[in-house]
Amino acid sequence: MQRYFDNAATSFPKPNEVLDAMQSYHLHCGASPGRGAYSQAIDATDMLDSCRELLCELVNATSTKHCIFTLNCTDALNLAIAGISSPHTAKGEPVHIITTAMDHNSVLRPLHYFLSNNVTHTIVQADSSGIICPSDIQKAITKHTRLIAVAHGSNVTGTVQDVESIGLVCGDIPFLVDAAQTMGHTPIDVQTMRIDLLAFPGHKGLLGPLGTGGLIMKPGMEKIIAPLRTGGTGSESEHPVQPETLPDKYEPGSHNMVGIAGLVASVRWILEMGVDNLHKKENQLTAQFIREIRNIEGVRIAGPQTIDNRRGVFSLVLDGCPHLAAKELESTFAICSRSGLHCAPFAHQTIGTHKLGGTLRVSFGPFHTAKDISYLTQAIAHCAQLCYA
User: Fold this and answer.
1) What is the residue range of 180's domain?
2) Per-residue pLDDT tens for 219-237?
3) For the chain, give me the number of helices (H) and strands (E)?
4) Residues 25 and 154 occupy one common structural domain
């Protein structure tokens, strides 16, 4: 039996309800929302509205029309970064953006693309556990700072940032949180945490299908964020320009409704289970893994060494042979893991593993058990012996 430990990349398995909902959409609906007055089109529109409502309920967002669906989390981050930068650079105004050493290439690469267009950015460094000090972000702010972007959870070390404290120092500067590794795993309250822009994928902690995601905006952000794409929305079709009304301003073209159907079911499942309960269970598995891995010679955990400031994503250093270990885990133990730099080069520089080819990463999901964790640690012990030899 295959054991899947790569939930930081995409969650597996999905709740049965997700698969049932996707099949039901194809069998009984199949229509595009906002493109007709017949019953199936209305059903599709209701499904889309339900998904926005559930997502906003999950993170305590106030306005469903400010929940914008995108292709994935990367697309949402591009919308936030480009949408804030473009109006200023079009006028020749300088734009300064603050990011951190723990950010993913989904933030770093869009910024690099804009660097030649009057955009600069500061990368705030983290400590050896991957933790960002809010005061360091505050010190990096200039009169031209237009955006502060922070990964809530690291896809390398599992480090969870204190976004509430960071939100305090941001003041009136838009605060973009990349929730790729936390939404569905960790309680998020966009109001308490002072989050202006929350980017999320549907296929990770939310347990939905690939090709789904979104950007939840604080009301008012639509006044400063330009759309990335324009096109048909099914609304205001008499006008050749993109509607200003939300969410249509940012959602041209037909939606991935089979994906949305699955996301409705997965978010509903999470709400029924309770994020606090899921978080508590993951903390228990995380504590068990830390406890058991400490007894293995030749293996060390990068990042936080306790359940504080972290979730169940682990980078393991095995004497510089992460790729060999990943192959051995699959071939001998049928364990799916991931080795390498994980699209986060600065994070690996922070923990000192960039010259080793990265790390061996394992990441937990809601269907793992204590027995699964023990099986994993025993397998890692075997791999450590191979590397150590």
Assistant:
1) 16-273
2) 999 999 999 888 866 666 6
3) 11, 13
4) yes
User: Within 10 A of 91 (CB to CB), how many other CB atoms are there?
Assistant: 8
Separation of alpha carbons 238 and 247, rounded Å:
18
The rounded distance, in Å, linking the Cα atoms of 170 and 90 is 24
Q: How many C-beta atoms lie closer than 10 Å to residue 241's C-beta?
A: 7
Residue 127 shares a structural domain with residue 198 = yes
Residue 273 has a CB neighbour count (10 Å cut-off) of 15
Asked if residue 9 lies in contact with residue 339, where contact means CB atoms within 8 angstroms, the answer is no
The pairing of strands 95-100 and 197-201 is unpaired
The pTM of the whole model exceeds 0.70: yes
User: Are 156 and 294 contained in the same domain?
Assistant: no
Which residue reads 């390398």 in tokens?
156
Q: Give residues with Cβ within 8 angstroms of 148, minimum separation 6.
A: 97, 98, 137, 141, 166, 170, 173, 174, 175, 176
Condensed to tens digits (0 to 9), the pLDDT of residues 117-165 reads 789 999 999 999 999 999 999 999 999 999 999 999 999 999 999 999 9
Per-residue pLDDT tens for 78-115? 999 999 998 888 888 999 999 999 999 999 999 888 87
Map residue 68 onto helix, strand or coil.
Answer: strand
User: Please, are residues 267 and 208 in contact by the beta-carbon 8 Å criterion?
Assistant: yes
